[in-house]
Design goal:
The protein contains 1 helix and 19 strands. By secondary structure, the chain is mainly beta.
Length: 273
Amino acid sequence: MTDVSQIFTRLNVLPNYTQGFTYLWEISQGVEDPAPWKFTIYQGHTSIGPWEAISPVQVNRFAWSETAKRVVGMDPVLFFKVVMTTPSGVYESSVRTPYGDLERREYMIVRDIMRRELLQMKKLSGVPVLILSRSVYGPKCTNCIDPVTGDILTSNCPICYGTGRAPGYHGPYNMWATFSPLQRDTEQSGDGTGVRQPYMVSVRLLGFPYVKDQDILIDTREGKRYNVDGVTQLTEIRRIDIVQQFNARELPVTDPVYRIGLSNEGEGCRLAQ
């Protein structure tokens, strides 16, 4: 394998509410290997291996949560890394331990806060949602970017959906969220059809996978899609986000993101037929 330290800019091993770990990683924005990008998480009992794959292959996805039970404080010291495979090469991240970001005591506190938050969502106030994360790295779209200026020529591009990257979004990521009551906000439509009243809601969800402005939220019950704006962190420990909140504006069904299909877990986004 080729060890290219500049490819991976982040690898976090964080607690989740299923008694396992959540793995988050990021890639340098300068990486332009062609898609698909395939990721696999490996576990070892020493920092040099031997290594065992513990995740399904994640295609164009940058987070994975395991469901296998781990008894924190009783498991031996573990080491993790992520291996990325593209049509151009194979790269691996640096090695991390589960407690590189939080000590064991803090890890337990974070997991309990998340457990309580999720319990309230599942029992009372929450709904299942999907997050499509807007691409900020990867090969540039060759269909809609001006080769001279680098400007995006259309927001209706069937390949990147106006993001300028191919693929335009990665995910989807399954989460639970709490919606505030709907609010109407009158505005002039951008397509010349007149005035419309899109819905605006405030959304609360767990702290990771991290959500950023211009990501897409999907209400899986109704199939509606929302644009994310104004993300704030409500609760954090040691700079680790536990609960996040943002405003979400309902998108019209004519928006290009409605053409993004949702494939199976770990297989990434696809263009709707």
